[in-house]
């Protein structure tokens, strides 16, 4: 098995703004809010406009323009209960969660939402957060070794009885979870996402996760990541889907879209971006091979703190749709979108961009069959 062409249609997710400051570190006006009522309406809007997933961010203390933050798992559950179809992914940090405790929460959330709860395992870059909470800070590859055990334990507890696990970070003795999540042939247990860019992240994604989340990348960057991910997945007889981060600026004209990007960067909160860059550069460069997240990010890239501008989903609806389908042809299964003005831009995307994506996908399929 391989990761090639697992889905017929590219799927869409959006970043849940459960953290203050929006999705760009800039003083530009962002018509968004981190409060629950706004986010409840936004989740319902996204669901109506063709989005499949939402990803709740995780922060425990203020950092680099994000002064306030709601906890990701509880916030995700609230959004699940306010929607009917949308799947909500909660980002979690190994080291701050015990996997069996999260497995218990996840099983309950899965029952309450009729099988729509998912987890994104992020290994952590913010050392100050761990230290403030009295938790040991591990170097990059050790954090990903811990994440690998975390993913393995979650899967075992959700699918097996009398679980025993003896690792370097977690030890489980004869543990049985009841009730288990809602298992179906289409979805055997809550979906597991592995975030990252590094070789260690790709290994974890290929071996243990259902999905691999990448920071923003151009076509060459996506191809390089996919080649590695596919090699790992094939070696373990697995299939792994690929999600790509992108900051989406779709406007009626290309000039308007490019002017918006230019204004975002011109109004960047320089102090916050530089502080973020200092923290994450250390995280990226601490990998054994220098391929970590943000290892080669520029100042402009980091104004959107997951390199979302690099994916270049910026332009008219036609231009954005064409580039999305080009990514799909490379093997991208899901676009994780951030927006400047979430509510109205998700509506615009659903009305103007998504129909074009589906038309292009259909025409591409017809051409390949004929």
TrEMBL record:
CDD domains annotated for this entry? Alkanesulfonate_monoxygenase
| Alphabetic keyword roster | Flavoprotein, FMN, Monooxygenase, Oxidoreductase
Among the GO biological process terms of this entry, one is: alkanesulfonate catabolic process
Q: Does the keyword Ubl conjugation apply?
A: no
Q: Which stretch is the leader sequence?
A: none
Q: Which Gene3D superfamilies match?
A: Luciferase-like domain
Q: Luciferase-like domain: which residues? A: 12-333
Q: Which GO terms describe its molecular function?
A: alkanesulfonate monooxygenase activity
Top-level taxon in the UniProt lineage: Bacteria
- Its recorded name reads FMNH2-dependent dimethyl sulfone monooxygenase
């Amino acid at each position: 098995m391989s990761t090639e062409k697992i889905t017929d249609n590219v799927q869409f997710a959006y970043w849940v703004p459960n953290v203050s400051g929006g999705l760009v570190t800039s003083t530009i006006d962002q018509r968004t809010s981190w409060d629950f009522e706004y986010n409840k309406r936004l989740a319902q809007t996204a669901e109506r406009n063709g989005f499949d997933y939402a990803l709740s961010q995780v922060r425990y203390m203020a950092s680099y323009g994000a002064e306030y933050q709601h906890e990701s798992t509880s916030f995700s559950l609230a959004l699940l209960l306010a929607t009917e179809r949308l799947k909500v992914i909660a980002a979690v940090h190994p080291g701050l969660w015990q996997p069996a405790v999260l497995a218990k929460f996840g099983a309950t959330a899965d029952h309450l939402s009729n099988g729509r709860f998912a987890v994104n395992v992020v290994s952590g870059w913010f050392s100050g957060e761990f230290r403030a909470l009295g938790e040991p800070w591990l170097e990059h590859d050790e954090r990903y070794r811990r994440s690998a055990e975390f993913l393995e334990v979650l899967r075992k507890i959700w699918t097996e009885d009398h679980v025993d696990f003896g690792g370097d970070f977690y030890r489980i003795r004869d543990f049985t979870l009841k009730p288990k999540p809602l298992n179906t042939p289409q979805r055997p247990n809550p979906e597991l996402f592995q975030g990252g860019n590094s070789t260690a992240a790709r290994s974890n994604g290929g071996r243990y996760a259902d999905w691999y989340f990448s920071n923003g990348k151009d076509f060459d960057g996506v191809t390089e990541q996919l080649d590695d991910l596919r090699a790992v997945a094939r070696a373990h007889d697995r299939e792994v889907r690929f999600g790509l981060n992108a900051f989406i600026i779709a406007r009626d004209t290309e000039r308007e879209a490019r002017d918006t990007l230019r204004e975002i960067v011109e109004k960047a909160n320089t102090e916050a971006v530089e502080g973020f860059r200092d923290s994450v550069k250390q995280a990226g460069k601490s990998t054994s091979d220098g391929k970590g997240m943000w290892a080669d990010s520029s100042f402009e890239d980091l104004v959107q703190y997951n390199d979302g501008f690099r994916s270049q989903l910026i332009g008219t609806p036609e231009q954005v749709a064409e580039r999305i389908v080009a990514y799909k042809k490379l093997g991208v299964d899901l676009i994780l979108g951030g927006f400047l003005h979430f509510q109205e831009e998700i509506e615009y995307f659903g009305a103007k961009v998504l129909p074009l994506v589906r038309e292009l996908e259909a025409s591409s399929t017809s051409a390949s069959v004929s």
